[in-house]
Description:
2 domains; 13 strands; 10 helices; alpha/beta; globular; Rossmann fold; 5-stranded parallel sheet
Amino acid sequence: MVSRASERRRRPDPRALRIRHFAKLDRDRARRVGVPEVILGEGKTVEHLLGIVDVLVARGMGALISRPTSGQIRALRRRSGELPSSARPRFLADGRLVRIPGPLGPRYRSGVAAILTAGTSDVSLAEEARALLQELGIRVVRQYDVGVAGLHRLLAALHRLEARGPEVYIVFAGREGALPTIVAGLVRAPVVGVPASVGYGRGGRGEAALNAMLQSCAPLAVVNIDAAIPAALFAAQHFVDRTTGALHGPVPRGRGVSVRTRTARRQGATREKGF
């Protein structure tokens, strides 16, 4: 019993792609929850991020990188000159999101997501969410700068959006953060509120907006301040194509990884197969 437990602990996990000593990418996330893992650039060294990207490119695996630093962007641009055009990263949303070419895993059905912002100051966050959704193949319609200071703007914007049949709304607002609650009280689709770090003084930098959204009397899902990527991933789950088995496919396989075969598992035994 002890030896079997030790053997299991030593056996590589086929769901994790180990990259030297500093990273274990979750290759099974798309199968489990319907959205790919997004790599956060912020907090990583340039060496760490390039090490991850090099392995992904070598294996032909796609990826999304959010919030890369200026140093990481410069390094990725230099590295892209060494790659074939089909493998070069694309810089989206004014550099807030980087797309590494290759499959991301999930499949999504056709549908429309709507994005609104209260002010122009929220647009950079909204574009981050829009870029991610579009990279996943989800159609996005948008209306920007339609905050509650001029409700006539909002009503006209919602009329235009509703004609496109959105199935989910993502609404960005800073300062008093009232827009998501109002939208949630006017539309039939689910609404995700994103507090933006806009505003100053007491309750500034998104704090008042977050508190207001959490106290919403309309049905509203709320993410953290400036959390454009979690909001977009939450919305993307609504469009997962469950008829194609996207959530129930096999664990992705890669060279050098050992997995248990389904046949051996059915027979009650474990057989290691190398790639």
